[in-house]
Amino acid sequence: MDMEIRTNVSLRAMNTFGMEVKAACLAEYSSVEELRSLFPEGNLRSDLPRPWHHIGGGSNLLFTKDFEGTVLHSSICFAEEAEPAEDGKVKVRVGSGVIWDDFVAWTCRRGLWGAENLSLIPGETGAAAVQNIGAYGVEAADIISSVGCFEPATGKELTLDVSECGYGYRRSRFKEEWKGRYIVTSVTFMLSGNYSPRLDYGNVRSAVESVTKGADLTPGVIRDAIISIRNSKLPDPSEVGSAGSFFKNPFVSGDVFRHVADVARKDGLGDVPHFLSPDGSIKIPAAWLLEKCGWKGAVMGNAGVWGKQPLVLVNATGKATPDEILALEAAMVRSVQERFSILLEPEVEHI
Ligand code: EPU
């Protein structure tokens, strides 16, 4: 099948927020060779409109207007499992276009440990490695071994070890100084055939126990528990448009934390939930700050805030425009800044 290149395309189905925006051009490739053919001599083919922007499942972005250039999308879909090593570790290489949760389900069916806590996160595998997706005490970087990339400027393919990718909380070099330099084409994960559940985040242990009722733990059982936690807190992407957590959790200094604690004391907000990080900064859940500013379930025009998790902005009526989401975002940021002197940063990429 020839590569699909379409012009004047609605992106509604390609962003989980369901924004009705258009791209001048959309190119979907299904192999590295096809991707290479889009960049002859190191630049985007001259007949395609520029700039180019690469998307994954569109689950972590907000198109703020029509896109005048070419949107690229990977349909490189495969999964290869290597023979287990003596220590039970198993390497699995996965194409960037594989739906993330299909990959997680596949690992669980094989009884491989490592990805199960990341069940039901929307998006695709290539984007998971760019975003360093994380949930329930696990980040993609914990199980990535290396990332296969294509470099448009040189036409070369290369493999980057996980240690080179600059992973941190929702961070990677792919999102930062390597943006536009590399396109992720595959990701190699290091999973394990050995019993290794991770149950220490929040209510994961109790949710797992209520599913197993004493039976043996398997990756599939943990997957079921994670899915039930997510379904109880987060909107179903097939019913309500959203991009998951819209804001990052802020990491603040001791001074800022004391200020928040003072405000909480004066206003009778109770203890401030917080987590110490190894670098000495303090993580305060953005969800708590937003809840205390009254944002849970708020509605502004067609845009809204999810009633069970205020980090999640939603396309409440299905008709929200980018401007309505941006106005809601601005109002939320302003209120947290005014009350707690913390500037929330979006996790969702604005294009
Ligand atoms: N909280 C509130 N009110 C709420 C919800 C939460 O005060 O309505 C406070 C509580 O103190 C709670 C804490 O926030 O203990 C943490 O809440 P939660 O476990 O739901 O996690 P989060 O920090 O709000 C992060 C990720 C989610 C991920 C969950 C679970 C970010 C930006 N978000 O949310 O990721 O599912 O942890 O691991 O780090 C996503 O990125 O799209 C996403 C959904």
Please, could you describe this protein's structure?
By secondary structure, this protein is of the alpha+beta class. Helix content is 26%, strand content 25%. It has nine helices and 20 strands. The protein has a five-stranded antiparallel β-sheet. A four-stranded mixed β-sheet has the order 1-2-5-3. Strands 13-19-18-17 form a four-stranded antiparallel β-sheet, with helices on one face. A hairpin with a 2-residue loop joins strand 8 (134-135) and strand 9 (138-139). Bound molecules: uridine-diphosphate-2(N-acetylglucosaminyl) butyric acid. The site of uridine-diphosphate-2(N-acetylglucosaminyl) butyric acid has 16 residues, from strand 13 and helix 8.
Shape by Cα distribution: globular
Tell me which oligomeric state these chains represent: single chain
- Strand line-up across the major sheet: 6-7-12-10-11
Structural class: alpha+beta
* Distance separating the two termini: 30 Å
Q: Please indicate the percent range of residues in DSSP E strands (runs of 2 or more).
A: 25-35%
How many helices does DSSP assign?
Answer: 9
CATH topology of the largest domain: Uridine Diphospho-n-acetylenolpyruvylglucosamine Reductase, domain 3
**Helix-residue proportion:** 25-40%
Tally of individual domains: 3
Let me know the average pLDDT: 96
What is the CATH top level name of the largest domain? Alpha Beta
Element order: H for helix, E for strand:
EEHEEEEEHHEEHEEEHHEEHEEHEEEHE
Bound molecules: uridine-diphosphate-2(N-acetylglucosaminyl) butyric acid
Alpha-carbon Rg, integer:
21 Å
Which stretches are poorly predicted, pLDDT < 50 over at least 5 residues?
Answer: none
Main beta sheet: 5 strands, antiparallel
The CATH architecture of the largest domain comes to: 2-Layer Sandwich
Could you give the count of β-strands? 20
